[in-house]
Specification:
Helix 1 runs antiparallel to helix 3. The radius of gyration is 20 Å and the shape is globular. Mean pLDDT is 86; it is low at 3-11. It has 192 residues and is mainly α. The protein has eight helices and no strands.
Amino acid sequence: MSLPDYMISARMQRPLGIAILSVLHFIGGVGLVVLTVAFPIIASRKPEVAEGMAAIGLPLPLLVAGMLFIAVLAIGSAVGMWKGAKWGWYLGSFYYVYSIVRNLSAIVSVYLLFDQMPVEEVAAMQRGPEYHFWKFGLRTVVHALIFLYFFKENVLEYFGLRDVNRLKVVLIEFGICIGTAVAVSLWNLSTP
């Protein structure tokens, strides 16, 4: 015996925001895979690209590994969110926590980089630190709002996570991301 339509759980109906995020994650993840494959080729033909990245503390292998991680995370979260799988919710929410921490880290890096540069060089640049602070700050706000969207009742219900311990999820996800950022920074500082 089947249930009438009005009794079917909202879990069966994919929220529009989740559908949009799933598609965007998939497109972005596939695009990033292509870029991850192309970047070492570009860097081998234009050594100044790799040298420039290394000069700001981002060696090519670390950049490629980070890009691949984000690509796999984006594609995995896209599939899981589309299917309404619990792991899709965790990957999707983690994607935005990782983005928040990455953008906050970029703000700190911009501050440190521009603080070490002579004032004349900073003044001569087309885009000074304010541009980068605004860019990464705006990204942080947008990603934080999307992260909060994952905790809406209809979204949690769609994923079957209505009773999830929200504080625990937030603490664990931010702990993992902050720990990773600190570990990468320490590793980067220890390599010549």
